[in-house]
Amino acid sequence: MLRIGVTGSIGSGKSYICDIFEKRGVPVFYSDQETKMLYHDTDVRRLITSRFGDAVYLGDGTLDRRLLGSMIFGDAGNMKFIEDTLYPALFRRFEAWCRGHDAPFVLFESAILFEKGLASRFDAVLLISAPEDVRIRRVMTRDKCTEAEVRERMRLQWSDERKLPLADHVIIHDGNDNVDEEVDDFIRLMEKRQTHRKPFPSKE
C-alpha cells in the first residue's frame, strides 16, 4: 500500500478533491480531525497537562483551545512541545488506520504537510493548487469573511509557488470541468505504480 500525502493552501479545494477520491473508493485520513481527537488520548493529555497545567482542559474534559493557543502563540518552545507530542501519536494512529484498509494507496490529508516537514514520511505528495484570486473568493464565500482576513490566514501558509517544486503531483482546481478526470488519472497512476512497486523520486 502506498501512502500519499495530499496538501493544499487555504481555499484550494483540497476537501472537495478528497471527497471525490473517497467517492472513488480511495481511503482518506483527515489529519486535522484526527489531531483534535488526539487531545483526548490518555497519554497525550497527561503530557499536555504536565507542561501547561490541568486548566487547559475544561470541567467536561474538553480542551480549552483558546487557553492552550494563548500559551503556544509566539512561543517556539511550547509549539515544538505540542508538535513533538502530537505528531508521533498521529502517525501511530495513521499506521493503525492503514492496516484496516486494503487498497493500492491511501491519502493523508494535511494543509501544512510541507510547512511542518512531514512530506518525507510519504511515498509521494499530491498538491491541490488554485489561483490566488480563486482561493480568496472561495474562502470569503465559505467563511463569510473579508479579503484582508483571508490574506492574513494565507500569510501563515507557504505559497503555492514555494510548494510546487516540492510536490510529486499536482491537481489544478481552478473551477474547470477536468478535475474529475485529473483525479481518475491520478488513481490509475498510483494503481499502476503500486503494481510495479516503482519507488517515487524524493523531492527532499
CATH architecture of the largest domain: 3-Layer(aba) Sandwich
General form: globular
Please work out how many helical segments DSSP would assign: 9
What is the domain total for the residues? Answer: 2
Description of the structure:
This protein is α/β, with parallel strands linked by helices and 204 residues long. The chain has 2 domains: 1-27 and 104-204, P-loop containing nucleotide triphosphate hydrolases (Rossmann fold, 3-Layer(aba) Sandwich), CATH 3.40.50.300; 31-100, no CATH class. It has helices spanning 14-23, 31-38, 42-52, 65-72, 76-99, 132-143, 147-154, 160-163, 179-196, and strands spanning 2-8, 28-30, 105-109, 124-129, 169-172. The protein has a 5-stranded parallel β-sheet, with helices on both faces. α2 (31-38) packs across α5 (76-99). The longest helix has 24 residues, at 76-99. The two termini are 21 Å apart. The model is unreliable at 197-204 (pLDDT under 50).
